Amino acid sequence: MKVKHSLLSVTQKALAESFGVDMMVTLSRILIPNYDVYQRTGFPENIPIPSRDAAAQIVRDMAALELFPIFVNLLIKISTEGYMGRRYQIHNLRDIIREMHNSGLVYDQVNNTFVEDVKIAKTPNWGVLRNGSDYVISMLRLDIVGNTELVRKYSKTVIESTYSDLRQIVEMASDRRNGRIWSWEGDGGIIAFYFGNRNKFATLCGIEIVNQLYMYNLKQCRLDSPLKVRIAIHNGACQYTNNPESLKKLEIVKKVTEAEANFTKPNTLTITDSVHLSLPSTLTARFSKNAFDNGTIYYRYEIRTEE
Amino acid sequence: MVIYLVSDNAKLSPFKDVKKDKPVIFSYKEIKQEYQRIEPESILYFDISAMKEADFKKIIKQFSVRKDIRYGIIDSKTAFADIAHFFHMGFSDYIGKELLKTGVSVKRLANIENFSEIDKNEAKENALSLKHKPALNGWKDVKSGSEYTFFFIFIQLDNQKDLKGYFSGNSFHGFRQKFHDIIERKTKSIDGKIWMWEDFGGLILVPFDGKQNNIIEFIFRLYLDKIFLYADEMQLDEVTLSIKTVIHMGNTVYKNRGNTGTVIADSVNSIYHIGYKFAEPDSFLITEEVKEFIPEYLTSYFIEAGEYEGRQLYRMRKFI
User: Fold this and answer.
1) Residues A172-192: pLDDT tens digits?
2) Integer Cα distance of A169 and B189 in angstroms
3) Which residues of chain A are modeled with pLDDT < 70?
4) Cβ distance A141 to A188 under 8 Å?
């Protein structure tokens, strides 16, 4: 995230007016252990650093290390909860939040963090996830059934338009719930949900894809038989990576791929136990429980009509 | 196939051979007002013998918008040398002086029907318009106090007991208002307006604009996507929504919402009776009047649901 000068300036002012240098350093060390403001500013250790200089250096360093949104999250947290039992009033906090909005970030109340405004930008890391850091993600995996046969059977034009229609369905369902497509390889992909009620959002996204595809197959599919996909969702911790090859090696990706490939019927959605557990009963009521020989339990959503 | 003859000559009788379905005769003046009421898939003969060229051109321009009718020329003087010109303009028949003596045979009319194509979709839509009182531009044409053909959508939450138990006081009022607002917003996409509303549902009107429309698919989707309605849009975590819906089509005098106390219409009575007394919980019914509007790709989803007050009903198979 590129931090605008106006945002740096208002944050620097807020720090200088709200905290002493010691407290500024304490806050900085929550995000950057062993942060040394003397070394960073070049001031000799026997001379007190003016608040404004310390604040300016800290704010610049947070921006340079791409920690700025997290630092603002920290300020918001301290203004509402205090720190080590003491309350702090942070001046100009509203101005900081306004400037964050102007920079294309909106505050996510559920996760207490800033996230990019999808109307302005849509990057795979929502503008805030950092390479190598751990996050709990809800991951949706989608795969087109019988891709090789389809590609052999139909012309390039038919396949391209059909797959493009599918991608559009997936994107609409994902964008509506702030999901991000982390990988798309023509015959399927991976979508991540991090912000908000991530398991619910991922599940609603999966259901929407199943339902939309149902109508697509009824009304406009150009293939001789319905286009089929398998969808699965799993929730778990993973290290964020923007490298597609490293992504494949993540445990969460392996798990969701296994659920999709081995335990999902065409045009249905499978969710794992960890996702199911956190869903409201109005959603889980639409899933049927499936226990498999290997001891795993999955839950399935499918569209069925009475005979 | 209805045969029309446009002529000011009362003695002209080219269809002696046609015993059944006698031709409908209009004068040049009359046809200008009547062209919208010409039956689809009919054939319309113009007697051009006494017609001025300018008038002929005007009529042709007026009729060229209707692609669901076949046209023929009667030229009792055989004054036109270039007969093919008429066919190039889209006419399907030409009756000259000699043929007029023997008359147009039934077989000839049947040949024309086979030979000359018309726009079947337009024919279907125009047939519907003639049968009903459409508001061709939707709500823009609807005026309070006048009669129109409408689709009536009865919609009601039918798990009222569960809902009353789940919500308390003000939150229950808020929930019902939210349901009303969502239905109001969603039905705008099919040109629908809430006409009457009680605590748990009401009646929505969609003016019939003379065309096939997507009203059945709209309600079908409401059921398919009902999970989004309660779990996403209404944020209900513990109680779902059970909804019954009926679609009927018929006429009523339109009165503005809130001023409907004096409305007396068989259509309105019927849909309320079906909705309250016949429809089962969580079901979607349509009346026989609406059946022809089921899109082809959804026909297999509808099954006979019996008769009520002399009207055949069809029910959508439930999603389970």
Assistant:
1) 999 989 899 999 987 889 999
2) 20
3) 1, 110-111
4) yes
Q: Are B135 and B141 in contact (CB under 8 A)?
A: yes
| Interacting residues of A59 by C-beta distance below 8 A, sequence separation 6+ | A8, A11, A12, A15, A68, A71
H or E, element range at B42: none
pLDDT of A155: 96
Q: What chain B residue is nearest to A209 in terms of C-alpha separation?
A: B225
- A306 and B297 within 8 Å at the Cβ level: the answer is no
What is the count of residue pairs from A and B with beta carbons less than 8 Å apart? Answer: 47
Mutate to test the interface with A, among B220, B237, B282, B283 (most CBs of A within 10 A): B237
- pTM of the entire structure? 0.76
- In chain A, which residues have their Cβ closer than 8 Å to the Cβ of B237? 280-282
Q: Do B238 and A208 touch (CB under 8 A)?
A: no
Q: State the best of B175, B224, B230, B303 to mutate against chain A, taking most chain A CBs within 10 Å.
A: B224
Q: How many CB atoms lie within 10 A of CB B261?
A: 7
pLDDT digits (tens, 9 = 90+) for B126-158: 777 667 888 888 999 999 989 999 999 999 999
Least Cα distance to B100 among B71, B77, B116 occurs for B77
Strand-pair category, B201-207 with B193-197: antiparallel
Report the residue count for chain B.
320
**How does pLDDT run across B74-93, given as a tens digit for each residue?**
888 877 778 888 888 888 89
Q: How close is the nearest chain A Cα to the Cα of B225, in Å?
A: 7
Q: How far is A285 from chain B (nearest CA, A)?
A: 9
